[in-house]
Write a structure and sequence with these properties.
Blueprint lengths: L1 H11 L1 H23 L8 H9 L11 H8 L6 H14 L4 H36 L4 H62 L5
Length: 203
């Protein structure tokens, strides 16, 4: 199976190897985004805020977004500062989003480029053969097989582009839904904290 995959990549040429590298970057970014958007706590937001108010304010860089917001919000005495913290936290939910979206869009186009290039080469070869006008039926038959093989090889990059793009598109959509949930949790946590401030229950 590995030998077959390697042969497919070789047949696809430089575009196929570029698509393989793109797939590696894409899934690495997707994994990093999924980790970045993890929830990081159990229960409701009220319980989270209550727990964080009793703990030292030591938010780490690698903490989940909502948990980090809950730790840092009490350090800000004014409402404007807390609103800015909410905006920055929402911006953090977009980490790697633009990169993933761009790669998902480029992958099938890159595969199509490889196919078009392969087809151009195939038809150029066919044109040269037609100019020299094959002398025998056997040569004509071999020529037809060569053209068919060239077209088949040219289509490999389109196939690879779709193989890279389709699963990545599905996963990117799932991550977008998770990011929206984190944004809603941030907005809810901000509203809950502001209500506590208004009631005199937050430091």
């Amino acid at each position: 199976m590995f030998a077959s995959a390697l042969e497919t990549l070789r047949a696809g040429g430089p575009i196929a190897w570029l698509l393989l590298a793109m797939a590696f970057v894409m899934w690495s970014a997707a994994a990093a985004r999924a980790w970045h958007l993890r929830r990081g706590f159990r229960g409701g937001l009220e319980e989270l805020l209550r727990a964080q108010l009793r703990q030292p304010a030591n938010a780490g860089e690698g903490e989940p977004i909502v948990l980090r917001f809950a730790r840092r919000v009490r350090e800000l005495p004014d409402a404007q500062g807390r609103a800015r913290l909410l905006e920055r936290s929402v911006d953090r939910t977009r980490v790697y989003a633009a990169l993933l979206r761009a790669l998902v869009m480029v992958a099938p186009l890159l595969g199509l480029l490889g196919t078009v290039s392969g087809m151009v080469d195939t038809f150029a070869s066919l044109h040269e053969s037609a100019v020299h006008d094959a002398a025998s039926t056997l040569e004509a038959h071999l020529e037809e097989r060569t053209v068919a093989g060239g077209i088949s090889t040219a289509l490999i990059t389109t196939q690879l582009g779709l193989i890279v793009a389709i699963p990545s598109l599905v996963f990117e959509r799932l991550l977008e839904r998770r990011a929206k949930r984190r944004c809603l949790e941030l907005a809810r946590a901000h509203a809950v904290y502001e209500a506590r401030v208004q009631d005199g229950g937050a430091p």
